[in-house]
Structure formats: structure tokens, C-alpha cells
Amino acid sequence: MRYQITGKQIDIGAALQDHVRDELGSVVQKYAERPTDAQVIFSKNAHEFVCEATVHLSTGLTAQARAHANEIYAAFDGCAEKMEKQLRRYKRRLKDHHRERPEPVAISEAPSYILAGEEDAGESEPDTLQPVIVAETQTRVPSLTVGEAVMQMELAGAPVLVFRNEKKDSVNVVYRRDDGNIGWIEP
To answer: Which chain positions lie within coiled-coil regions (predicted)?
Structure first.
């Protein structure tokens, strides 16, 4: 597994990097058979240290955790505990999907746009109904089954996930509804 351990405006020593590799490696190996890479970012927010970890698995899933504490090692340990809890919660489902999927998930690129919000909506009508594009980026759209998409959305803590349905070869959306259930849009 590849590790990228960085600090935002703080120095990350070799001892902390070794601790992160050992602890995170044991957590991930315990619950996932083929992790591909992990990214751990340390930062400081006022008097607290913040640790954010992202682990990409060969099944296409991404597990994320974030924790903060007064000590940098405690911040990482809290983050590792959250990661372990997530992976433990989905262990059975991850293993089932892992056996069905002999190769990593296919990822396709799609353009993503950020549109300007309405600033003075109550004062006057806009000159045109075309939205103003503020930024354009590339977004990754994974090819998943519906079950994997729901699992990925829950692991990431995202309210919505756009994916390519492997069975129908069409773009689908899963989202968290206000009533707590999961919605699935299949055009």
C-alpha cells in the first residue's frame, strides 16, 4: 500500500510517519484485503491538531475519517479508530463485493462545473437565464453496482453519489433522503 503522509504548515517527523504506517496498515489489513493507497494529512487548528485520513480500496470504495485532539499522536489515534469502526461496520459487505470483483473499479472522467449563486435575487430580473460558470474541474465517476454505490456514499459521508451502473451501463444517482432512506435514480 502506498502512503502519502503530509502536514499543512507543520513538520511531520519520521517517528510519526512510522507510527502512521504501522497503525493504519494494521487497521486496513485487518478489514480490507487489497488496499491501494492511503493519504493522511495533519494540520493545526488553533490549539488542536487535526488528522484527516483517506484510504482507497481496490473494490473502488473510499473510506475517510477525521479527528482532532490536543496532541498530534492522539489526533491520529482518534482518526484511526474512526477508520477502523467504518471498515469493521462494512467488513462483511466489503469482503462479499471483493470476491465478486477480480479487478479494480473502472473510473471515467467527467466535467464538473461550479455555478454562481443568485446574489440579489429580490431586486431585479437577470439579463439572461444562462448560469454563470465560476469554475470547471474534472470529476471521477466510478463504475459500480447499486449496492457498492450505496456503500461508497455511506463510507464517504456524502449526501449524493453519481456512478455508472455496471449492469445497465448507464449513469445513475443514489442519494440520502430527508426521511433517512436511500433514493436511487435510474434514468
So the answer is: none
Q: What are phi and psi of 97, to 5 degrees?
A: -70, -35
pTM: 0.60
Class of 105-185 per CATH? alpha beta
CB 169 within 8 A of CB 185: no
Domain boundaries, the chain: 2-99, 105-185
Residues 53-82 pLDDT 10s: 988 877 667 788 999 999 999 999 999 999
Supply the CATH classification number for the domain 2-99: 3.30.160.100
